[in-house]
Design a protein that fits this description.
Elements lengths: L10 E6 H8 L6 H6 L5 H20 L8 E2 L5 E2 L4 E8 L2 E8 L5 E8 L7 H5 L2 H13 L5 H20 L8 E6 L7 E8 L5 E2 L2 E2 L2 E9 L2 E8 L3
Antiparallel strand pairs: 1-5, 2-3, 4-5, 6-12, 7-8, 8-11, 9-10, 11-12
């Protein structure tokens, strides 16, 4: 799914459902990783292991020796030198996307169950203009849970933002416009307008991030890519 939203230079490895667990989920953890989940419940440990198995498979495809993926500042994954990347997991799905740092400045991916957000969440994450756009999208395309898609997009924006700035980005600090695409389309584009000073990439301060979304197999997935100047 996420692979469809990313440039060809990005290696995305995904694990879906029980087949994905069987293929990727039994990979060993490095000692540093093992220490982080030694007391975790089974579900947390399984997701932690599965998404790191995806990441190591992506490293191999890029010709980089597989290694531990440890959380750094604010929990962001620490990647091998010369790589940029992002990971995501939810019930029944995990994915990692990696790219050589010379090909992209940053990227962020996120996947969520294609279900409505719990009560009260939308008001906490969405700007008034975003909520109005969601109302219009829902009237035109009731087959898509646009509130969940917006939440996923905000997560992807943050994951692309943080490696470039090392700063927090609040939900209210990015205004995201979602293009629904043609009638009945299962994917479209995103544009995030940054409402605080954006990162400087190759000498240029960015005011927007771009990306895409897709829906399928019970999931909604989003991706943001930040090219070099």
């Amino acid at each position: 799914m996420i692979e469809e939203l990313l440039p060809a230079t990005v290696i995305a490895v995904e694990a879906h459902g029980e087949d994905g667990v069987r293929e990727f989920g039994d990979g060993p953890l490095y000692p540093q990783e093992e220490a982080l989940v030694a007391r975790a419940v089974a579900k947390r440990r399984r997701e932690f292991t599965l998404v790191r198995s995806c990441a190591r498979r992506a490293m191999e495809k890029l010709g980089v020796p597989p290694q531990a993926v440890l959380p750094g500042e604010r929990g962001a994954p620490t990647w091998p030198a010369g790589l940029a990347g992002s990971m995501t997991h939810c019930d029944g799905y995990a994915a990692a996307a990696l790219v050589r740092a010379g090909d992209l400045a940053s990227l962020g991916i996120d996947a969520e169950p294609h279900q409505p957000l719990p009560d009260g969440v939308l008001s906490a994450i969405a700007l008034p203009a975003e909520r109005e756009r969601l109302r219009r999208l829902a009237a035109d395309r009731p087959d898509v849970h646009w509130d969940r898609l917006l939440f996923s997009a905000k997560e992807s924006v943050y994951k692309a933002w943080f490696p470039l700035t090392r700063k927090w980005l609040d939900f209210s600090e990015a205004d995201i416009e979602i293009d629904a695409g043609p009638a009945g389309a299962a994917q479209g584009t995103l544009r995030a307008r940054l409402l605080v000073p954006g990162p400087v990439v190759d000498g240029c301060r960015l005011g927007h991030f771009g990306g895409g979304w897709t829906v399928g197999r019970g999931l909604v997935a989003t991706a943001i890519t930040v090219p070099h100047g």
